[in-house]
Amino acid sequence: MTYLQLVNSVLRRLREEEVSTVGQTSYSKLVGEFINDAKRTVEDTWDWSALRSTLTVTTTPDVFNYNLTGSQDRIKVLDVVNDTSDWFMEYRAAHWMTAAYLIETPPLGAPQFYSWNGIDTNGDSAVDVYPAPNGVYNLYFNVVLRTADLAEDTDRMFIPSSPVIQLATALGARERGETGGTSASELFSLAGRTLSDAVALDAAKHPEETIWTTV
User: Fold this and answer.
1) What are phi and psi of 146, to 5 degrees?
2) What are the domain boundaries of the chain?
3) For 208-213, which contacts have Cβ atoms below 8 Å and span 24 or more sequence positions?
4) How many of the other CB atoms lie within 10 Å of CB of 106?
5) What is the pTM of this model?
6) Comparing C-alpha atoms, which of 133, 26, 148, 45 is closest to residue 89?
7) What residue ranges in the chain does DSSP mark as E strands?
8) Strand pairing report for 87-91 and 125-130
9) How far is it, in rounded angstroms, from Cα 41 to Cα 203?
10) Which CA distances in Å does 135 have to 43, 68, 69, 116, 160?
11) Which of 2, 77, 94, 140 has its CA 20 to 30 A from that of 125?
């Protein structure tokens, strides 16, 4: 659904007139804020299939720090693959990476390990790899890429819309204190059930991620 469609869906539930643009009235702007608040909450609840993506890094010889273009700072890594060498890369803590590069004499070779190292000027996550590449390697970062706030009327949201709409409606009802028969607490409860159902449906695509095992 588009940002405008989401806002109008909430406005109808709050018994308000629909708008032709999100910024048409001060109240539609407020509902737009509730939509983004709800979207962030729902996105953070589960690793949605619709948010899964692959970011590619092509290494340069002797360079160990790279920016994941488009990642911003709300990603979750599922796995990292050195496709050129045909192996999974392993995470190492920042302390380990610091010791490897600043205390020891780092070798050159095919990257085997990675560690996060802040963000760049565009807000994208930066990553260190070890050892420093001795050539060109294609590194694939399979991630859950949570999205920026909706801003334009035509911006689209790809996670399930129902829990976002229900939660935004509950936020709107709480803000103004009435909804004509349904309390804000009831609306929050409905939003919670809707979100739970949506997570259960999407989790069925990745059953291995909901099975807990002891090591």
Assistant:
1) -75, 145
2) 3-47+159-204, 49-145
3) 209/47
4) 14
5) 0.87
6) 133
7) 52-58, 65-67, 75-82, 87-91, 108-109, 113-119, 125-130, 132-133, 138-145
8) unpaired
9) 17
10) 37, 19, 21, 21, 42
11) 2
**CA–CA dist 107, 104 (Å, integer):** 9
Q: Per-residue pLDDT tens for 119-164?
A: 988 889 999 999 999 999 999 999 999 999 999 999 999 999 999 9
Q: What is the DSSP letter of 117?
A: E
For strand 87-91 and strand 113-119, is the pairing parallel, antiparallel, or unpaired? Answer: parallel
* Strands 132-133 and 108-109, sheet pairing: parallel
Q: What whole-number distance in Å separates Cα of residue 43 and Cα of residue 121? A: 24
The 10s digit of each residue's pLDDT in 3-13 is: 999 999 999 99
| Bridge partner residues of 90 (DSSP) | 113
User: Taking CA 122 as the corner, what is the angle to CA 120 and CA 127, rounded to the nearest 5 degrees?
Assistant: 35
Q: Which of 114, 135, 133, 136 is nearest to 125 (CA)?
A: 114
Q: Which two tokens stand for residue 166?
A: 């229900």
